[in-house]
Amino acid sequence: MGNMAYLGPEWTEEARTRLKAELTPENMHHVTSSMSNIYQNTPDGKEKYLYIAFEDGNVGEFQVGEGEPPAAEFKIIADYETFAKISRGELGAVRALTSRKLTLRGNMAKAMRLAPRVDRMNKVLASIPTDY
Amino acid sequence: MAADNTNNERYAVDVQQRIKDIQALMREREIDVYLGTRIRTMSFIVDAFVPWRSYLVIPAEGLPTIFTFVIDADRLLSETWMDEDHVRGYFGAGGADQIEAVQFFIEDELGIRKGRLGYETGMATYTAEGWMTHYEFEQYSEALPGFEFVNAHDIVDHVSLIKDEGTINRFREAGRIVDEGHKAARAAVENGGWKGMTETELGGIAALAMRRAGSVSEWNFAGLNEISSGWRTGLGACTPPTTKEFAAGEPLMFDLHGMFKLALGDHSHNYLLAPATERQRWHADNFVACVQFVADNYRAGATPGDLITQLGEFAEERNCSDFILPGVEHGIGLFGDEWRVGASMDVPIPYWTDPEHTYQENEMVILAMQYAAKEEDVGFRYENPIVILKDGCELTSKYPLAIEEIE
Fold this sequence. Notes:
The complex is a heterodimer of chains A (about 130) and B (about 400). Chain A has about 130 residues and is α/β, with parallel strands linked by helices. In chain A, about 35% of the residues lie in helices and about 30% in strands. Chain A has 4 helices and 7 strands. Chain A is globular, with a radius of gyration of 14 Å. The relative contact order of chain A is 0.21. In chain B, strands 4-3-2-1-5-6 form a 6-stranded mixed beta sheet, with helices on both faces. Chain B starts with 14 loop residues before the first helix and ends with a strand. The chains are: A alpha/beta (about 130), B alpha/beta (about 400).
């Protein structure tokens, strides 16, 4: 399998397939929540989003798009390069948050509780051969 | 005896009504959102122990949301009536610090970007009142430029002035707990037990007894249990305990603090360590008589000014007016609420008791008296949370009013 362009249609389909296969309701602790990653300063200059929803631990809607994302419980805003570094394992999500490279909008206490599950999701995404 | 934590009906309070009352006053003042920072505001609405710096956002309609330090958010969630969506944590992270967490919540979730924002500023006698700091004010003003900031703490002060039955019952239990502390303190010092004992040690002995009886705090904001002996009693106030050892012939002042379901137990009791002089005994008898006089005169319709005047005349008759400091009370409420009497901002000396405040039924104050013979190193302090009744008052600590001589 060759590398796929980050956030491109092929990458999005692969991400959806892998997330649905690898994240189980049990290891996601039956979580019901949603989040939108907002990508700023992208290579093509367009603001993009990655939206994912979980229903009772099952991966539900998964979208990548441009412009206004669907309403989500959590909104995470950062530069494209910051998200890319997190996906490549070059930057920890907590380090990015505490250095204000990431901005979270939503219930922080709940986000902290959900953090291990988001890490699980990021590990799946990081396993996709990707060109950033 | 451990605290009665099972009879929740007895201690039930109607927080929803409190919120409605606050929101009605907000609408009257055209305030779109109230941003509370005082400990007393948290206690009154969250109805749980909120020791960390927190921010309570009350919209003009709907439920309030609290933002507290993230490490304590889950503990708070387990104790308050509020649900997960309304107990938030803040943390030093992008979008999640004290400023942005509140800003984003108001903008994104309440959907308000302009209007009037009520906040809490003023002054107090103790550090931890929780007023919005100047830095916070500047940061919030910058983060929420569409809002006019108006000082509105008197809204909460007004709504919390008259205590409901559940709150009064909590104070009664807090009074019982503090009495357990006094029994333990008395037992520790009697029969020569005081020899070699320090003020701090006595404070700890009383704290342990009160914790065993159900207290969860000695109120860190007031210096914990306030114990004085010797010359510091001559100041008429307890103040934090020191490592000074008790000594024969000295007065002792034990001002114990407990807390039950946020209600603050606060009772000061005094002793004379033998051998007491005739002069010490005379001072002690004056003090007891003055406290009893004030307790007999508290009632709905009275004012602090009336009581101070009457006490002054009574003390004059006993020839001890030089030793009575001018005051008969201070305010009391749930955790964080321990000073001013009344809710009016329009008082002769801002943030001090209004001498013309007319006590109402089911208002609570601390009956407090300071007797200070500084040059003689003799003084006494009385404190007891009381409930104002139509024709009198109820003392919540039942510890007998007396000054005994301890051998």
